[in-house]
Each structure stands twice: as structure tokens, then as C-alpha cells.
Design goal:
alpha+beta, 10 helices, sequence-specific DNA binding, DNA-binding, transcription regulation, Tscrpt_reg_AraC-type_HTH
Length: about 300
């Protein structure tokens, strides 16, 4: 269900009074270590950068993302957005509600969902399995679905609830495929960066350093980091980390391997570091992610 949507042009930090804030749906607290406020909301928050660069702070990490990058936060996940130069981005607040009955319902208006079906159907909130940051391989498709969803929702033409939901489902499907499809690794026009990406995709389960990647493509380390970030949208270290976590999630979903085995299979030298990085990106530890997958399997089998 969509709750809010919009466009923003930002050229600074979110501004809050220097005190903790709390309303019915919104909470904010100042984190001295980050020198900024972080907020939490009870919705999934999906955002795409249309122009410029945005600094994303979430829990215990901070990174800069560029044009066409997509950010996804789980409900109640602390986060902060800022920009040193004017940046344009588009965003959606939503919840994924699944009916308990076999036939899915698609009411045209939010009130109708409760009034007409509330006595017969129990809606349960589902976890949306997307990473915090996605760099789409097909940004034109993602941008088109994103902007169409927001335009329909904000302008409210006849049938907008049905149309915005349909487009939003297509958007989530496209992002899920971007994040999970092993058969179509990232493709870029720069030969040196593409060679580095190919190496990461083939050897993510081995020890890898930025200096070795830079040497592989005959670039200085500093220039390689800068060039990689501008083309891919995130740093080499972060790309490697996210690629490993992506494959770890597949193993957690599709196999009965133990956490120590999964950590080793995707290139982590210790279970503790793997668990810490998994929680940093996904908002929950891998053990909880795996148990949620098991609960979901049991629910669907009943």
C-alpha cells in the first residue's frame, strides 16, 4: 500500500531542532557521532536520485550515491539524507500488506480495504527483500516506473489508486530482479572498470584488495577509486561488500547451509564480521533473516 510520495530538491541536511522529536508516525534523534539527526518512520522508504549526488547515512554507515542510484530503507530503520550540492530525488513511503486468504484483494481506495474486507481478511505486513542501495543496470526502466507511480499517486487522475499500485508492483519487481539476478552482472562502458567488475563477480569469494584491483586494470589506487565511484555510483569496497551480501542472502534463502559456511562461501574471514556487515546493510542479523525465510516457507505451505 502506498502512503506518501513526492519529489525533492536538496542542497543541505535535513533540519531538526536540537532535541529529540517524536510524533505519531515520525521520530528523530540527534546522533553526536554522526553530527546529524537520523529519523525513523513506520514505512518502507524508497528513493531514486534523478540528478546530482546524495549523502546517505544509515545506522552505522555513510556513503555518497549518484544519479540513478536507488535507496531502500526498512520500516523503523534510522536514516538521514543530505547533499553538498543541489540534488533532485524522488521518493515513496509504502507498506507491503499480504492478505491471509488465497485470492489476493486489490481495493481501489485505502478505506475500502478495511470497510469491505476487514471482517473477512487479515492483512499481514511483509518484509521486502531489497538491499539498502541498488545501482540499476537498466536505470531508464526503473526511472520510468518510479516517476509514473509518483505522478499517478500525486495527481490523482481517475483510477489512480489502481494505476499507481500496478506501476509500483512493476517497480518493485524490476528492483528485485536488479538485486538478485546472477545472470546479468553490471555492465558499464568503461573497459577498465568493467574488467574490475568482472573480476569481482568471478572472485568475490576470495580475499580481495582495492590495490590489487587497481593493479589489475593498470590504474593508480586513488584514481581507480574515484573513477569506479563516478561510473558505478558507490565505492569499490562497498560494491564488493554488497555483492557478497547479495549472494549470502541467496544462500540463506535457498540452502540449509550454516551461517559459518555461508560466510566463508561469500568471502568473509569470520562469522562475526559477516554478521555485523549483514546487519549494517539489511537492518537485521543473518540468523533472523534465515528464520524469517523459514517462517515464510511454513506459512505458504499451510
Amino acid at each position: 500500500m502506498l502512503y506518501h510520495a513526492g519529489w525533492e530538491i536538496r542542497d543541505g541536511h535535513w533540519s531538526y531542532p536540537q532535541r529529540e522529536m517524536s510524533s505519531g508516525l515520525f521520530q528523530a534523534r540527534y546522533v553526536s557521532e554522526l553530527a546529524c539527526y537520523v529519523r525513523t518512520i513506520p514505512y518502507h522508504w524508497l528513493m531514486m536520485v534523478l540528478q546530482g549526488e546524495v549523502v546517505v547515512t544509515c545506522s552505522d554507515f555513510r556513503t555518497t550515491i549518484g544519479e540513478n542510484a536507488v535507496v531502500h530503507f526498512q520500516p523503523h530503520q534510522p536514516h538521514h539524507i543530505s547533499a553538498d550540492q543541489p540534488a533532485n530525488y524522488i521518493w515513496i513511503h509504502y507498506k507491503m500488506l499480504l492478505p491471509s486468504q488465497e485470492e489476493p484483494l486489490l481495493p481501489l481506495y485505502p478505506d475500502e480495504q478495511v470497510a469491505r474486507y476487514g471482517r473477512e481478511t487479515v492483512f499481514q505486513e511483509a518484509v521486502v527483500d531489497l538491499p539498502s542501495i541498488i545501482v540499476p543496470r537498466n536505470p531508464n526502466l526503473v526511472r520510468k516506473l518510479f516517476t509514473t507511480t509518483v505522478e499517478e499517486f500525486m495527481l490523482e487522475p481517475p483510477g489512480f489508486m489502481l494505476s499507481s499500485k500496478a506501476n509500483f508492483q512493476c517497480l518493485l519487481t524490476a528492483l528485485f530482479r536488479e538485486a538478485t539476478d546472477r545472470s546479468s552482472p553490471a555492465i558499464v562502458s568503461d573497459p577498465a572498470i568493467q574488467r574490475a567488475l568482472d573480476h569481482i563477480h568471478q572472485h568475490y569469494d576470495t580475499k580481495m584488495t582495492i590495490s590489487s584491483l587497481a593493479a589489475l586494470v593498470n590504474l593508480s589506487q586513488n584514481y581507480f577509486i574515484s573513477r569506479f565511484g563516478k561510473i558505478v555510483g558507490i565505492s569499490p569496497n562497498e560494491y564488493i561488500l554488497r555483492f557478497r551480501i547479495r549472494h549470502a542472502k541467496m544462500l540463506l534463502r535457498d540452502t540449509d547451509m550454516r551461517l559459518t559456511e555461508i560466510a566463508a562461501c561469500v568471502g568473509f574471514e569470520s562469522l562475526s564480521y559477516f554478521s555485523r556487515m549483514f546487519r549494517k546493510l539489511e537492518g537485521i542479523p543473518p540468523s533472523e533473516y534465515k528464520s524469517y525465510k523459514l517462517r515464510t516457507d511454513v506459512h505458504h505451505s499451510e
